[in-house]
Amino acid sequence: xxxxTEFRDVYHSPLIIxxxxxxxxxxxxxTDSPLSQPTHFVFGHFFSALxxxxxxxxxxxxxxxxxxxxxxxxxPTTFICGGLSMATSLTVMALLGVIHPPAGATxxxxxxxxxxxxxxxxxxxTILASSAIxxxxxxxxxxxxxxxxxxxWIDPNLQLVEPISKEEEA
Length: 170
Hints:
The protein is mainly α and about 170 residues long. The protein has one domain. The protein has helices spanning about 5-10, 20-30, 40-60, 65-70, 75-95, 105-110, 115-120, 125-140, 165-170. Helix 2 runs parallel beside helix 8 (about 125-140). The radius of gyration is 18 Å and the shape is elongated. The relative contact order is 0.18. This is HPP transmembrane region domain-containing protein. Pfam families: TM_HPP.
């Protein structure tokens, strides 16, 4: 099986977005959690990626930062950029009400992974496409049995599925 795609060959995008591993635990294991609902999942990752790319674009203006990206020298501002990206991503998610814990790592990836930094703005459609694919699989897989996913799409007060009571399970 080939892992070669146009995006991977031309832009050297990562094979997998590492933060999506933790998202899989939420989407497939904790389906009732508000943190695993589509709004939190998609927008949390998107806004974290956006914040991470914006902050990293400012740091890339420093010519020494480019040396880090080329793996030729150590640059301590990488840690500052990563921490600032992560903290700002969390703040933006909290302000928008779309906290998704693994999405913090999406903003961090935009700052510290050289192949993601080189994607720059192209990281955003990668995140959106990956989110859409994973969400489609979560909706399909989680609705095969008795459990239902998502419990809400946008507003938690508008529940799509009533929780199963103990009497109904028996």
